Amino acid sequence: MSRLLDLIRSGRGRVIVAIDDPLITLSKFKELVMKTKDAVSGFKLGLPYILSYGLDNIKSVITDFRDTYYIADLKLADIDVVMSLTTKVVCRVGFNGVIAHGFVGLKGGLDGLKSVCDELGVDLYIVTSMSHLGSTETYDLVIDKVLSVVEGLRPTGVIAPATRPEVIRRVRNYLGRTYLILSPGVGAQGATPGSAICAGADLEIVGRAITSSQDFVKASEEVIKSQLKYLEVSRCY
Amino acid sequence: MSRLLDLIRSGRGRVIVAIDDPLITLSKFKELVMKTKDAVSGFKLGLPYILSYGLDNIKSVITDFRDTYYIADLKLADIDVVMSLTTKVVCRVGFNGVIAHGFVGLKGGLDGLKSVCDELGVDLYIVTSMSHLGSTETYDLVIDKVLSVVEGLRPTGVIAPATRPEVIRRVRNYLGRTYLILSPGVGAQGATPGSAICAGADLEIVGRAITSSQDFVKASEEVIKSQLKYLEVSRCY
């Protein structure tokens, strides 16, 4: 069972903090983890952040705070050999999970990556659709195909956009309760905290609403409070 | 006009060398560039390689050999904000081009990335389909949509798989001669040197067939010779 599920069940807030912008200095990142790790379920580091600071620096923070959960959000979308090499490289520094795109398909793609994740004991999350408008032009046209890829692959979880709750509902209806659904797009991208969970997600991914705040603790508490309030007053999935 | 087109027109071989595996040490990478840069049109560095050695080390090689062309092959596939941040970070070290997935779509995705590439003077290449079998399950189902995304975006070029020459022909027929077509999958992945160019590509991307060789010069010369021979005896696009 995923360590992430353990953390949720232990009562951490249903929030993953997304860290993408290199303007968040390493010491700010460290402060963010230290101050919010007991309130939220984990941290998702984006490609610009990882590239900008380099794996050794990221490792030093992860090593200092092992009692949380770290996802390398490289949005892997390549042939099996390349995605597997990448995963081996990033997971050496202590990441617990990686994210890859469902549109890559299985054969010679995600199937090889899944084997490597299983060997390494790393969780795999598959993007089923994205939060921006462009995603409706392409990704959404093959969402059923992507979901059948997910069923063939059996990853730890999937990614579905908070900005389009109807997509979350569709993903949850299709996949049932077998997979975790992580949902980005809450806060700066427009979705209200709680709305994605209400539509069927397990966790909401929140970036700038927390990372741009002067007070990380207050900002993350506010997001969690807003989630609870939303769930209290809404008829949810 | 792209610097890459200048290099092709100056008579360099129609090969881009792909460097993905961290087993290629930095000094091997440096040797590879030094010895083959006048024979081939450029170098494409994959995500596992860039992550493994870090941007500062990559920069030191690029800075030493400026008279060629470097593509950061991160297969970008995220929202505009994240792809733009990533491109700003990698292009600071001297890359001339980046690769992103057409699957992402325009609005809130590739359109924002294109603006940043234009600001930075960096070439953008869009993946239209991939070389592995899994790509036929998903990507190929929306290839016309992806090609309309390319037309809306007007990047420097596109990526189409050498392992499936019928896809290259389709891409070339759809897009005409406006865009460069770069084609991966030659060598280790199975396509014969010259076959992708014959189908309509401008350049073939060759990785392991050159990078795994004990003699980089000989291996790249052999690929270029094979290309010319293939083109001589075949009825090409």
Q: How would you sum up this structure, described in words?
A:
The structure is a homodimer of 237-residue chains. In chain A, helix 2 packs across helix 3 (47-64) and helix 4 (80-91) packs parallel to helix 5. The relative contact order of chain A is 0.14. The first copy, chain A, has helices spanning 3-9, 26-36, 47-64, 80-91, 106-120, 143-153, 165-175, 195-199, 208-211, 216-233; strands at residues 13-19, 40-46, 70-76, 97-101, 123-127, 157-159, 180-186, 203-206. The longest helix of chain A has 18 residues, at 47-64. Chain A is globular and about 45 Å long. In chain A, helix 5 links the parallel strand 4 and strand 5. By secondary structure, chain A is of the alpha/beta class. The first copy, chain A, is built from ten helices and eight strands. An eight-stranded parallel β-barrel of chain A has the order 1-2-3-4-5-6-7-8, surrounded by six helices. The mean pLDDT of chain A is 95. Chain A has one domain (3-234): Aldolase class I (TIM Barrel). At the A-B interface, helix 3, strand 3, helix 4, helix 5 and helix 6 of A face helix 3, strand 3, helix 4, helix 5 and helix 6 of B.
Q: Name the poorly predicted regions of chain A.
A: none
By DSSP (H or I, 4+ residues per run), the number of helices of chain A equals 10
Termini separation of chain A = 23 Å
Beta-strand portion of chain A reads 15-25%
SSE pattern of chain A, N- to C-terminal: HEHEHEHEHEHEHEHEHH
Largest interface: A-B, 53 and 53 residues
